[in-house]
Amino acid sequence: MYKEINEFVEAFSSLVWGLPLLILLIGGGTYLLIRSKFLPFRYLGHAIQVLRGKYDNASDLGEISHFKALTTALSSTIGMGNIAGVALAISVGGPGAMFWMWISAIVGMATKFFTSTLAIMYRGKDSAGQVQGGPMYFITEGLGKQWKFLAVMFSFFGMLGALPVVNVNQLKQAINDIILIPNGVEVSFTSNLIIAVILVVFTSIVILGGLKRISNIASKMVPSMVILYFVLVLIILGINYTEIPKYFTLIFTDAFEANYIKGDAVFGGMLGTLIILGIRRGAFSNEAGIGTAPLAHGAAKTNEPVREGLVAMLGPVIDTLIVCTLTALAILVTGVWETTFDNGVTLTASAFQQAIPGYGQYVLMLCVFIFSVSSLFSYAYYGTKCMSFLVGVNNQHYYKYIYITSIVLAATTPFEMMINLIDGVFALMAIPTMTATIILAPKVVKEAKAYFNRMKQKQQLK
Prior knowledge:
The chain has a two-stranded antiparallel sheet with strand order 1-2.
């Protein structure tokens, strides 16, 4: 039965991740980048100042600070997309897949700037009268009620896309492969169920506390784990420093050759398959254009939409251009991608164990645990917001029970089924998000011009 379901989910994922979606995500993102005259790159310094709290105002609308909004968004993106997603991309498509993840991130900076600016520009109110932000609100508030079908589409698939099935599945795999199996513990359905129950208890305590508890925990957990992970990978790269130029070059040369691609081509031969693989893994990693980040950034305490857009665009830089690249180089320079049949988080663990024998994989396990658990908190918030839009605030708590149940399902289900499910649902979330963003892009450009003119005038008055 698992095999039949997996084949169906795989076919569904391949169907929606075709050329049209690639054009919408990358073509649409490129349009936004050009339309904004490469604004994400021109105002990177200003974005960092906003993130550091220079322009924070306690009287502004919203629930959380710029920094907490970014860390809440990053807590959902920095995790298995960086550790398992990169490993999956390299094991299937070779080093060249990383190049297309970079392209996804560069274009994604513009996409995140536009979507998160819109999340503040067109904040709406939920059924309880509370101000909310996100794609479903900027669709209805920015485009009008006649476009509500897109908002409903995003919210429905958002509830599914927010289920933590990949993170839980890979956390379970990491616990099994790094801790249980090496210590002689037999892995079974029962052991997986015990892991799921522990995660359910831990997650329930946090998510039932709401966004402020989620953002407070994420703002403390995520930065420290990113730094630890960063240091660990630098150690691995330092040990294998002679291999770095070779593999860094290979990422570029193999991006157009697809020498290592496994499986059937989706379109346009092997190269087309490699491009889609990289973009899919990039989308899973940084979620640019999918619509999840605006759900977090839409709750930021600011009356300046452009500021939140600038903060949001830092996400793909940190997530994909830095963290994913470090993971890819660690896997490549240690050679485990060619010498083992491991996949997902296990492949990354093999790289850490080879470079830092004895304790490398255990420190990675700590990072994996924190990344995964922090993702559980953020995704619960996203899914709850989607459900409250569809059925009202009074009924949104039912999603938390669905969410908690999915943790048990994910811990007892094969990885391929989970990653294909989320890939497919993410694609269907991207359609309404990108469509509305492209239509509303001129209004964002106008708002950006007005904002930077105001900033310029303030500087002149000083």
